[in-house]
Write a structure and sequence with these properties.
heterodimer; A: mainly alpha; 10 helices; B: alpha/beta; Rossmann fold; Alpha-Beta Plaits; 2 domains; six-stranded mixed β-sheet; 14 strands; about 30% strand
Chain lengths: ~270, ~300
């Protein structure tokens, strides 16, 4: 199903962007985690400041409780929301939408699709590259996060909740990747959709943040996929929840399947 | 009688409410050099894009090598070469890398000699990046990528646009050579002289429909005649008393002189003119340009 010639070319085409995003995200993770020691050092002053900083601002920044900031894992998880959940999702959606659509708006589709390669093979090869890039970004960011936790830790690093939040982050990125693919195949007149993808992820993130600040945990917040992730990493019952994994994987598969069906019948207009 | 390589039956394509092509039917035989001519926007590229399964027909069907263009698209594309009218290439690649990449899809990893040969004929530098190439040189890359795997059928959509006359002539030589070797050529263009120089048979497309399909020689010699009549006085040559079946594109040059295209029975024309006072009469084969203009208008 995957055409290795196209897969190799497509991977090479995207490798520079992958390296750039990985370096930026890893640098942000490592730099932010390096501040953790200072946070611990000035714990009293920070606690004092917290009395005047609204809790809403803390929640908007990803902290569930005031004390989360003084836990290595809590500190990491709050930053992970911005760096990997938000930025990683933007990367995933932009990558997977453009990987298909750019052939059309850059007018190379006519060349590619006159080769002896089926639409299924083009779709599978390009999605495989997108998936591999998302996996690599998550792996690199996860390893950087783990190393920075060890380097700047204040106590023992608990591996299990770290792995769980890393897995959820990957699943969220995967979902946005699949959303990008369906956006790409539904565009009739090909044009870049980068701004639309960035905007859509930000809107979902905004909805999630609002629901966190206002404490609304009902239907409204669940409009956003960010809300489907369990972010209470410091709670004792924090664990792999099958329904969340099934939800993300199921939706990603469903969106990809639907996208393939549309792509098979799509008029390639350039 | 040669078997057909391309068979198009009642093919139509609409983009929403606007017309792409309507009820197009034509056959191209094995080894033919077939011209597909029409003005811009007539539907030539739409027809070709359906043949390549880039777009889907609204109705009708098409077969290439006896295979359905929708169901067996991959198999068909393995045996043809296509030069698009306006397609970009992967800009960041070098020409040689791009051509080897394209050839690899056909299982031709050792296509280096052929690439070198074609680049030599068309005078193309293989070491330059595609992004640095002029429009004409990009066209050359497109032509080479279509020829490198020695296809059984070549589909060319405005292949000469952007090429200088010298390279155009080299391209015509290449195509003629490929055709002699047995390759069927489907040549789409809006430039009459190209089609006239290369093709034996032609289909004329106008507003999405095929208005005429025949051998060029037949179009020129047997059917349309250009008739010019100079009457001795002004009263006998008016159109209202001079109507014969097959008379088209009537034009009064002066008060005594008329010109028209005639595709009817020549005996009927002579009979009709015999009762009138004529100073001069000419019946000639019109230039090919006029035949095409006649169908375009």
């Amino acid at each position: 199903m995957i055409n290795i010639i196209l897969f190799r070319m497509e991977f090479r085409r995207n490798v520079r962007s992958l390296v750039l995003w990985s370096v930026i995200i890893c640098a942000l993770i490592f730099f932010t985690m390096s501040l953790f020691r200072s946070v611990l050092q000035y714990q009293q002053q920070i606690m004092g400041m917290m009395k005047i900083v609204p809790m809403a601002a803390m929640k908007a920044r990803g902290f569930g409780n005031i004390t989360d900031i003084f836990s290595g894992l809590g500190f990491y998880a709050a930053n992970n929301i911005v760096y990997m959940m938000l930025l990683g999702s933007i990367y995933s959606m932009v990558l997977s939408s453009n990987i298909l659509l750019k052939e059309e708006y850059l007018k190379t589709a006519e060349y590619l699709m006159s080769r002896p390669i089926s639409r299924d093979e083009i779709f599978a090869s390009k999605l495989a590259v997108a998936l591999l890039n998302i996996v690599i970004l998550n792996l690199v960011a996860g390893i950087t996060g783990f190393i920075s936790l060890i380097v700047f830790r204040s106590g023992d690093v608990v591996i299990r909740p770290f792995l769980i939040i890393t897995m959820y982050t990957f699943l969220l990125n995967l979902f946005f990747g699949a959303l990008g693919v369906i956006v790409a195949v539904m565009i009739r007149r090909p044009r870049p959709v980068t701004f639309f993808c960035v905007g859509l992820v930000l809107v979902f993130y905004f909805i999630f943040t609002i629901s966190r600040i206002s404490g609304v945990s009902g239907e409204f917040g669940y409009v956003s996929p960010f809300k489907w992730v369990n972010m209470d990493v410091l709670k004792s019952d924090f664990s792999f929840e099958f329904w969340r994994i099934a939800l993300f994987l199921g939706l990603a598969l469903l969106l990809s399947g639907l996208s393939l069906m549309i792509y098979r019948k799509k008029d390639i207009l350039t | 009688m040669s078997s057909n390589i391309i068979e198009i039956s009642n093919l139509s394509k609409y983009y929403g409410r606007s017309r792409g092509i309507e009820d197009v039917s034509l056959n191209v035989g094995q080894g033919e050099f077939f011209g597909f001519i029409g003005p811009n926007g007539a539907g030539k590229s739409t027809t070709i894009r359906i043949l390549l399964n880039l777009i889907f027909p609204s109705s009708g069907s098409a077969r290439i090598f006896g295979l359905d263009v929708l169901r067996d698209s991959k198999k068909i594309r393995g045996r043809l070469g296509y030069v698009p009218s306006d397609a970009n290439l992967y800009d960041k690649m070098k020409v040689r890398e791009f051509l080897s990449f394209g050839a690899a899809f056909y299982g031709r990893n050792k296509s280096e000699d052929r690439i070198q040969e074609l680049a030599g004929i068309l005078d193309l530098n293989l070491e330059r990046r595609i992004t640095d190439l002029s429009t004409g040189n990009k066209k050359k890359v497109n032509i080479i990528q279509a020829l490198v795997h020695r296809p059984e059928l070549l589909i060319l959509d405005e292949p000469t646009s952007g090429l200088d006359p010298l390279i155009q002539s080299k391209l015509f030589g290449l195509l003629t050579e490929e055709n002699k070797r047995g390759t069927t050529v489907f040549f789409s263009s809006h430039i009459l002289s190209e089609v006239q120089a290369l093709c034996r048979r032609v289909a004329i497309v106008k507003e999405g429909r095929i208005v005429k399909s025949d051998e060029i020689a037949v179009l020129r010699e047997k059917q349309l005649k250009k008739v010019r009549v100079l009457f001795t006085d002004t009263g006998t040559g008016l159109q209202h008393d001079f109507k014969i079946p097959g008379m088209e594109s009537f034009h009064r040059e002066s008060q005594r002189s008329i010109v028209f295209m005639f595709s009817g029975d020549i005996n009927e024309l002579v009979h009709c003119l015999s009762g009138r006072s004529i100073e001069n009469l000419s019946i000639e084969e019109p230039p090919l340009e006029e035949i095409f203009l006649h169908y375009y208008q």
